[in-house]
Amino acid sequence: MSDLETRPPAADAGNGLKRNAIGTGGIAFLVISAAAPLTVMAGVAPVAIGVGGIGAPMGYVIAGAVLLVFAVSFMALTKHVKAAGGFYTYITLAMGKTVGLASAILAIVSYNCLQIGVYGLFAVQTQAMLLALFGMDVPWPAVALVAIAAVWFLGYRGIDVGAKVLGVLLIAETAFLAIMGVGILARGGAEGISFTSFSPEHAFTPGVLAILAICFAAFMGFESTVLYRREARNPDKSVPRATYIAVGFMSVFYAFMVWTVIQAHGDGNVVAAAGELADGMFFATINQYVGPWAEVVMYVLIVTSVYASQLAFHNAINRYVYMLAKDGVLPAFLGRTHPKYKSPHRAGQIQTILAAVVIIMCAIAGADPYKQLLIWVNTPGIVGIVALQGLVSVAAFIYLRRNRAAATNRFLIPLSVASAILLFGVVALIAINIELLTFADALTNTILLLVAPLVFLAGLLIARRLRTTRPDVFARIGSFETHDS
């Protein structure tokens, strides 16, 4: 038995997540889908090109390299943490229950910011698709509410069903993007094929450093592989493999796609094209190099891409809530799973209601679904998740220093230090260049940057209060029980 695994309470027998439900591929599909490759390329990559210039592909390579360093130290702990609590259990293990609970609360808030905010993008993209293909102008709140119901349905049916659907959608969107990239290269681009994007004078410019926030946002969700270890087949192998596959694939694929789009317009013209075409850049490019039919298909696939992302984040949020309920921090009914599907359906219901309430409030307030709902709600989530990644790196360093036997490789401790430094450096870069994400005024940007630290502070205060008023609950924080029969 692991040093962090104890027997579950007998009362929990029969109430647990579905075991042996997904393998390496299923986990990888879940976390890559959360990043929504087609969406981050078509919707956000033009901004990266406009700011970073022809060196923009290197922004994704740099982000992938930093996250790979993080993944090595992160995965070093997977053999010692058997619970499916993600950041929560890892940080509690090394830094104590107070910091652990604060991290869990920040993770739940951050993932909700990412998931709920993206309903704005789903609404906008679906509106554009319906208008372009059918001439229908549907109000965005109606589109978002239908999407919330669809996400809830698949989340309710269980992780294996969701993984299969996400797998199909992910293969479709990545294959379609690849077709565009190959089409561009086959026709020689606009000015012939050039590799100057990867030369030092273009790859490490201030513009590329400025877009790192955008590039890191493209990887959001990959770290949630550990949330599925209770449902994974052979988790000690499948979870690390899925993590490395996700980071490696996204880094290479994003860089390749951005580079091919630069070739489509030419090194000298692509920045102007990005400014002129904006979020229509990929649509115009695929129309030119593959055909008008491909632009129509892209309208459909970008909607399914966002849906896949929503389902993946929904699943991740539910498992955080489920673990906190099992540890006694949240109401016990949230720690119950469906008797047939073994999904944390109670947690899913609460998350669905929260998303619907936010959408309705934004609609009543007349908020813009892209600027206010997507960008402004997403930004605190991005800051929170990257900060938590840095904190996990610190936790890995502390644990490996205390338990030298766990440091099976002499590079693990230095890598955990490097990971922490790099990730907190990224948080600083996001703060410095936040206007590239939000296009908002200074006051709004300040508020958005303060959300994550204030939530973390509130979590610390809640934990301290629990320690005084409910010591039995405090003692169960991060108890690392298997929670499953």
From TrEMBL:
Record bears the keyword Membrane: yes
Subcellular location(s) of the protein: Cell membrane
One term under GO cellular component: plasma membrane
Pfam families registered for this protein in UniProt: AA_permease_2
InterPro entries assigned: AA/rel_permease1, APC_superfamily
Claim: Transmembrane helix is one of the keywords in the record: yes
Protein name as annotated: Amino acid permease
Protein source organism: Paenarthrobacter aurescens (strain TC1)
